[in-house]
Amino acid sequence: MRGGWKLNVRISLACNNRNGIHCGWFDAMRIHTAADVLITLDTPRTVTREFWASGRIATVRIGRLLFSCVGYAHNVGNLAWNEYTVPQADNYIKLLMGLDRRGAQCDSVTVPNALGIDPDIHSWAVLATAGRATDG
């Protein structure tokens, strides 16, 4: 695709305390890719930090990786979850691979039938790359 337009990925983190305040770490995560693949993970406790600029979250650090943030939602679904929309070009696959090495456990994977992929025979880290588009 031309003109600088990129597909986005939504990363949701269970990073808030019971009062809905960001606590600096998460232990559960959801990734919703541009190809409609949805992956839900239980993760080891992982550090997260929000960097604000001009009244909005400009960057989010998840583990050791920085992601530019093009959208943000607080208390998604319930008080525990925040959702960050990041450009697909940001390497969220690297994040998943790192969490896999640290022992993250997959709770569920939803893959659209149009992709022709059987989630039962593919690892969740591989499924995250399914239908991945590139900028041209």
Describe the model.
With 136 residues, the protein is mainly beta. It has one domain (8-127). Helices cover 10% and strands 43% of the residues. The chain contains two helices and eight strands; from the N terminus they run βββββββαβα. The chain has helices at residues 92-101, 124-127, and strands at residues 8-14, 25-32, 38-53, 56-62, 65-68, 71-73, 81-87, 105-110. Strands 1, 2, 3, 4, 5, 6, 7 and 8 form an eight-stranded antiparallel β-sheet that branches. It is globular, with a radius of gyration of 15 Å. The N and C termini lie close together (5 Å). 25% of the residues are buried.
Describe, in short, the structure shown.
This protein is mainly β and 136 residues long. The chain is built from two helices and eight strands.
